[in-house]
Amino acid sequence: MNGFATLPFDEQLALVARAAREPGAAEALLREAGALPDSEPLARLVDALAEAGRLDEALRATLAEVLERLPDPALQQLLEEPGAAAAPLLEGLAFDALRTWPITRPSALAFLVRWLRRRDPAAHARLMEEAHAATDGPPTDGRWLLFVSGARLAALKEDPRWGPRVVETVRLAVDALARAPKSISQANAETLLARRVYADPGHFLFELLQNADDAGATEWSARVEADRAVIANDGAPFSFLDLVGVLSIGLTTKAAQQIGFFGVGFKSVYEVCERPRIHSGAFDVEIAHVSIPRVLATRPPDMDAGSTALVLPFSDAVDADALFRRALAIPPETLLTLPHLERIELTGLDGARVRWRQRVERGSTVLSDQALTEGAPRRFRITERRVSFEGEREEGRARESRVLVAVSVQDDGAPRPLSGPTLFAFLPTAERTGLRVLVHARFDVTVDRERVERGSAWNDALLDAAGHAIADAALELVSDGHDPLAILSAPDDAAPAVATLMAATRSRLHDAPCLPAADGSWISPTRARIVAPSLARALASLDLGDDPGSPARALAPLDPRELDVARWLGAQPLSDAALVERLGAHLETDAPPPAWLAGPGRAAIFDALADAAVDDAALRALPLVLTADGNLVRAADARVASTELAALYAGLDANRPVVAHGSVDALPERLRARLAIAAFDPARLVDDLQGDMRSQLLEREAPLLSALGALATTALDRLRDVPILRDSTGARRALKEGLVDLAPWLEALAPSLAQLVPVLDPELRRTHPALAARWVPAFGLDELADALDAGLRLAPEPARQLASLLDARATELSRGLARRLAAHPLFDDTHGALRPLRGEGCALSAGDASLREAVPAWPWLADPARPFVAAV
Prior knowledge:
The chain is α+β, with helices and mostly antiparallel strands. A hairpin with a 2-residue loop joins β8 (353-361) and β9.
């Protein structure tokens, strides 16, 4: 086996394979391979022997000796990824080593504890139980102190029996750690890590917050003085393993459920100091050059013996005021994400103090500044989920995580967007997410904790759960009557880092009632229709979808950002074609307009239709125009006419509705132009009066007569043989029957004249004077004179009435008309007989009264002084 160390690696592997086959060669090769700085040949040999079943008790004992002599880096390399056959053996050897190796190898022992905890949790638990039992009685081997908790170690230091042993063990272990050999490259790496990884000044404060929470602390404080900072917490005191962790890189002693993983967080204190001091439990140490500890003789009197305190004497370049301002910038929301901490206290140079406390009040988590230095308490609604991960995961990494979403709310519970960091991995990251809520989970982050690791399946699983938790929070807000859009990010605002989260939120809310509808209800995005704000109220009650089983509703008016969110979730704009189609489904022809169309939204709907990108024919097919009886008709069917004609035809002919100009003029000009409602043809009224609709039209006498009054004379002439107008007896007469319009002052003669000639109902003349004047022949004294000349004879009483009327208008009559009327028997003589005033059989008039007395039998005029006599 001589020269094994000088052979090429492939030849070394050949010897390893032979040793696994040939008895007697393995022991020597184990020793020679174990002496190499490179432990891979040894690892290959152990795996080969285990697979061949050659690791008997003798070789096992030899391997145990070899392991104890391995340098710490070689030991770590050997145990990094053992083969399946060798793993049980190595786990057993590690357990034995922890029980027997000397205290002067604290780093190796710390590594073995960490390794065994991950590889064989049951064996690790037995070791801890054994250590506890070994320190439960009188002092024994001090090496067991390396494995007990910090709290137990501190208690043992106060025990008179164990106190000296604890002090001595601390001295030996710290001295061994200080004297542990380090290569130049390792020392440089430690320095580089301590001073270059953490670019954010004051980042160490966050790391120490994390360390305190990992220690189970409920209180954490930072006091910034002129030349130093003192950071304290009430968590578990340091153990030996904790001390090794802060001195090492990648040798964290934390369990998977704790926050830290890299084992580098403590190094961030070198931002502000050269030689940090730790006062915790059994330890009072100062650390030089990142990894060289030394025991301090005493603990400062102002340090609480029951707490862990870090004293950080400032480097020359540290600005204490700036550091305190950075401390004040620690988001109080960190109390929400750290599982144990409940209070944070910050004290500045001038004694200024801020104390944030977490409490639950009325179902909300409240972060209050007990010093009341600024602002009101911060209130949050908390929604949580848990993730169990089954995918590939680096050894030692957590496989379960709480996922927390915190929604900032006002005192009344209404949500508001969160200001400040939004993505936490226990501590705030610097990720620009565009989120409006706080999201926390055990994300895999970069060493500086500024970013979450990209391409991590674990992170994707957490982000997916966070997206669902945000959706849960949104729906909880809805159930309490609050609009959740304030907490949902617009897609353009969300950073690529949270794409998985956004996708999960969208998937969860796509079909969930999370958007405010215009009718005050909550609807799912798939059922939401985006309409102009002016249309929202008008369409609020309508089903805007085409599936009766899943009605769609108009979305309430939203601001531009909220509208982007609604679109992203799946809300669809209501297209012009869909608007026309849905209005067609909800509007009924020959029925009154529904309330939503008769109200304030009417103008908005008409404006939208006027600008709709649809064929004009589609608009003309909608029942949009109001008839005189208050029903809607289609523009394609309607004819526009006067108010009188519209009232006349209201409800008579559904196939040919007539609408008033006023109804059409009420529509927007653009819509009127597109509807292109045809004008009513007056000839239609004439045809209808001559046809089957006559009786229906005659029943509507007032609007009919008004409509007739607007017809042209030529149209009226076509109706001379149609009995339309009522005479004084109430019978309808055609003009060709001789219907006349008796002069108003002749109305007293109407009953008598009506027996001789049809006389227009005087009421019709009063209500429709223009029509009467244009269409019905007038019947005054001239016409009466003609009738009398033609042989009309009046009964005595009407004759006397006419005579009285002639007296009343005597001065207005032409001499010729008066002489014509005077020729008819209208005037009483002294004997009561009716006589004309001139011509044959006329009444006599004597200027001398004595003559009348002399011949009384003559037909003397009874009243020779009447005005008409004088006119004749």
